[in-house]
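Two entries, shown back to back:
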Amino acid sequence: LPTLTGFYERLPFQDTFFETITHSDFEHLVGWTVTMSPTVLLFDVPGNPLAGYRDQQRFFQRLRAALVSPYTLMTTSDGWEVWERTRHAGSKDAHDGHDGPVPGRRSGRL
């Protein structure tokens, strides 16, 4: 799918819900998201038929709650909630705009 869409998932999991099994996995996901600091997060609008079943929706509600400090819900569009990174000028939370490595490229020396 990434080859067709040009979108390369940067998450440490293929399926965030099914691979986040323990509380430690969840904390890893939250920490990873805060560390990578993507500019925008997209969540299915709760209650949308495509948002998954009840347990999936609860999981993503818990994830939203865990990320409410560094992110803010800005709008909903076409079944998506659009959350944007909150910037605090001069704080250590400010981000340089780099959203992580380019897919297919390795960091470090050759």
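entry 2 starts here
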Amino acid sequence: EKGIEGLIHANRGRASPRRTKDSLRDTIDYLYQEKYTGFNISHFTEMLQEREEIFMSRETVRGILLEKGSYEKKKKYPKHRSWREPMPKEGMMIQFDTSDHDWLEGRGPKMKLIGGIDDASKDVPWAQFAYHDSVKENMAVLKEIVKRKGIPLSLYVDKDSKFITTRHGGLHVNIKRDQQKTQMQRAWDELGINVIYAESPQAKGRIERLWGTFQDRLISELRLEGVCSLGEANRYLHTLYSCPGTTKSSSGS
């Protein structure tokens, strides 16, 4: 018997039988650099499975790209946490906000993404792209949320001037007379929605993380599909992507 030393000698220099074939490794590297540029590893692995019929684990894909030099390990920094317990039941609170970002990366017009996320379930009842972050566009999104999910008990919003009356200089005032209220505030009153104003972006942690996920994953998919108009972007968001109803919460690199 050769024993352990003999086995080591016999296998020295041989590739592991489990090692992915070089041609497939080259294909994965090419797809990552040429077709799926900018995708994070988790998202890229999903695209390999869904669109290329290449099935392997995220870690295997990551290892191939690290070896090829196409991907670098990212430093992890401690995340700021402004912790608040989520609501216990769906429909108790919707975090409502707008994300101003270059969603089409110069291929089309500047757009805003307006939407909400359920504080308990983390589902996205509705979101849509718009040219402007106007009262009209915010009303349209709120109307769609109510149509699909019913009237929420409360909304969690920032202190934008369309949501709250302000004095000159940005000092917020207590609202006492109906005529002082914004159009959005009057609509909330009519619907019986309690409104809570966030003190900072960190306080709106769930929807800020949602925007981060969309800015990572959705932008990459819009690029992949060649989307270059507001109408195309909304059609993709509403028919092919996970919104509305649920979110692809994985945003791992």
